[in-house]
Amino acid sequence: MANKSEVKDDIGMIPSDTLLEKQRRKTVRRKRVIWIFCIVLFFVMLLVVTFVFSKFFFSVRSIEIKCGKRYDRDTVAEVAGVKKGDVLFTVDTDAIARRIETELPHAVSVKVERDYPGTLKISVEETEAEFCFEISGQYVVVSKELKVLCVLDGRAALEKSYGALIPIKIPPIRNAVAGHPLVFIDERDTDFIPELLYTLEVCKMRDKITAIDATVRFDIRLTYMDRLVIKLGNTEEFETKLIFARQIAEKFKEGTTGTISVEDPEEGFALVDQPENLIS
Q1: What is the pLDDT of residues 115-143, one digit of tens each?
Q2: Would you say 199 and 239 are in contact if contact means Cβ atoms under 8 Å apart?
Q3: Nearest residue to 199 (alpha-carbon basis) of 244, 148, 257
Q4: What phi and psi, each to the nearest 5 degrees, are found at residue 93?
Q5: Helix (H/G/I), strand (E/B), else coil: 94
């Protein structure tokens, strides 16, 4: 009997350490759960406080819009999609600028700024239709930046909407979508046409050019006052060539027709149909 009691006592003493270990582990887990709960609660409260603070102190209370004549403030505000009460620092200014430039094709440069604590500023610079070209009976209207402003069906629609625009022949394009820049098949054609148009303004010839043929960038031709064809040749030395061409054109009386070649800017010449119109 004694042996059995000892065995029972021995067996009864075995679980004591195990119970203490289990209790210790349970206490550790409870503390860990409490810590996690406190951390989650802290961040939830922080988010709530931040939201409430932002809503009351950094909400959009006013929207200042500067724009041109084509688009009014209500139109720009509607496209921007920002309303009073929106949290100012969550407003995506870049996305708003891109959306305005795309949905309002004449908007060529858009600047969107946050002015804390509660003002959103939108500045829209507009561009005008300058040139047009035909594709399969449709007329594509573009600005001097070669941004597509619209695509119209037929010349009658073109003249009704924009009046007289400078016809321009350009290299093959990949697509022409209103609100986006022209995309050329050859990326090398992207830069030289805007450079040519800019140089025309610098040389004060923009108003005298009535047609542009830039189909091939090595054989660029301009029509001066509907009567003189100016051969520029390649894309090099635009400014020098244009100034030289203007000087030659001004040596002849109005009504003179013919060709002016400045492909070599050092040896320009004119072949005219009325040589007697040379101003002495």
Answers
A1: 988 899 999 999 999 999 999 889 999 99
A2: yes
A3: 244
A4: -65, -35
A5: helix
